[in-house]
Automatic annotation (TrEMBL):
Keyword Hydrolase: yes
Region annotation Disordered: where it falls in the sequence: 1-20
PANTHER family membership: PTHR39159, UPF0374 PROTEIN YGAC (PTHR39159:SF1)
Pfam families in the cross-refs: DUF402
A GO term for molecular function: hydrolase activity
Segments forming domain DUF402: 104-221
UniProt keyword terms in alphabetical order: Hydrolase
InterPro entries: DUF402, FomD-like_sf, Ntdp-like
Protein name: DUF402 domain-containing protein
Organism whose genome encodes this protein: Nocardioides glacieisoli
Keyword Hydrolase: yes
Amino acid sequence: MTEPDPSDDVQVSESGGTMQRLVGAATARPVDLTLLEPERNVGMGWTPAGSAPFLAPGDPVMWLYGRGIDPMRVVRDDERGLVAWLAEDAETVAWHPADGRSVRDVPLADRFAVERAPVVQRWRGGGVLRIAPTGRPWSVWLFWEDDGSFAGHYVNLELPHTRRGSETATRDLTLDLWLDPDGELWLKDADEVEAAVRAGRYTQAQADEIHAAASWARADLVAGRDWPLDEEWIVWRPPTDWAPVTLPDTDVVRSARGTTLPR
């Protein structure tokens, strides 16, 4: 019998991230989210998600990752969590290396120290459905192929959402999970978390809690088929009259519109 090639358990995603196959049962432990709260950095006036008033289906909602802005449309908003749609070609605000390189082109050793600048860019690769369960340090993104077939679930580790009016705020925690339609599970960007610790972006204690959040998601969400994996969001499609939501006219957006990065 031929031994399996260990390299089969490590792959590179289409976006350039390192992915490691996960096998066996996950061991979850309580996660100390207070260690990660300093990452939020959104100011005052926010309340935990999951309580009224809620937004109505079709309402615009600004999904904030720190100072990044993704303008989306509400599918459902209630005590359980927020479900929102980011349309293909929607304008978003993202923070890119100020020298014009893509993030993946910056060596890992420099990736968390390079100067960033805000830019307006368009969401490419088809629309995406995002679901942020209340109180959980992750959101679940559903992707489809160009032919309409389901591509998989992306579990984006992030701080539990807080809300203010038509805004929902979180902060990306670098580490992610990818769940193939056949149930194969992958851990994505663990090497970036290690690089972030070396660069002083995270403390080792914070990195440990981020990995603990991944184990929590793996045990409860994936293995336990917790919401939203227990509902058939895979077959959901947006109403045909849902146009992309426009960015708000704020200082950050105006600054991003005025930024031209080197090529």
